[in-house]
Amino acid sequence: MKHILLTFALLTATAALADNYHYGPFPAHYVEECGSCHVAYPPQLLTSTGWQKVMAQLNKHYGVDASLDAKPRAAIADFLQRLASNRDKHAPTEATARMTNTTWFAHEHWKSSPAKTSFADCATCHTDAGKGDYSERSLKRPAGKRHRDD
Ligand code: HEC
Ligand code: HEC
Fold first, then answer.
1. 31, 37, 47, 112: which to mutate for ligand 1, most atoms within 8 A of CB?
2. What ligand has the least distance to the C-alpha of 121?
3. 8 A C-beta contact, residue 135 and residue 22
4. Which of 4, 61, 99, 112 is deepest in the core (most CB within 10 A)?
C-alpha cells in the first residue's frame, strides 16, 4: 500500500512538472473584485512593480473606474504582492502595466490578437482561465492558429 501511494505521489508530481500552468484557485474576494469584467489574472504573471502600478490607478483602469474601498483594496494588493513574480520577463513595459505587454506574454503569444478579440480576454483561448488553469488541456486555439508562430 505504501508503495502504491508513493508511486501515485511521484506520478502526480511528474504531471505537475510537465504541465504546471495552474495558477489558481484564487481567494473568493480576489475573484469577486477583480474577476467580474475579465478573468481574475494570475498574480504570478506580473511583477510586484507591475501590480503596484495596476492597483495605484484603479480609478482610471483601462478606460473604466474599478476603484475599491480602502480595506478590500489593501487585502487584494497584499495578496497580489505575495504571489507576484520577480522575473524580468514578467515586468511591465509601459505605464499601465499590462500583463499582455510583458516580454513573457509576447514570447508565448502572437504579435496581435485574432480579429475582434483582445488578448486581455484570456478565456477566449484558455477555456478554464476563470479557475487560473492555463494548461494545454484546456487551450482552444482560434481557427487557423495552431501554434503561436502561425
Ligand atoms: C469594472 C470592470 C473591471 C474591474 C472591476 C476590474 N477590471 Fe481590470 N480591466 C478592465 C478592462 C475594461 C480592462 C481592459 C481590457 C482590454 O484591454 O481588453 C482591464 C484590464 C486589466 C489588466 C490588464 C490586462 C492586460 O491586457 O494585460 C489588469 C492587469 C487588470 N485589469 C487587473 C485588474 C485587477 C487587479 C482588478 C481588481 C482590483 C481589476 N482588474 C478589476 C475592467 C475591469
Ligand atoms: C487568442 C488566444 C489566446 C489568448 C486570448 C490568450 N492566450 Fe495564452 N496562449 C495561447 C496560445 C496559442 C499559447 C501557446 C501554447 C503553446 O505553447 O503552443 C498560449 C500560452 C500561454 C501560457 C503558457 C502555457 C502553455 O501551455 O504554454 C500562459 C501561462 C498563457 N498563455 C497565459 C495567458 C493569459 C494570462 C492570457 C490573458 C491575459 C492569455 N494567455 C491570453 C493563446 C491565447
1. 37
2. 2
3. yes
4. 99
Q: Mean pLDDT across the chain, nearest whole number?
A: 89
- Band of residue 82 on the pLDDT scale cut at 50, 70, 90: very high
The three cell numbers locating residue 62:
483601462
- Is 35 buried (19+), middle (13-18) or exposed (0-12) by CB count in 10 A? middle
What pLDDT, on the 0 to 100 scale, is given for residue 71?
97
CA 145/CA 45 separation, integer angstroms: 23
1-22: pLDDT as tens digits: 556 555 555 554 444 444 589 9
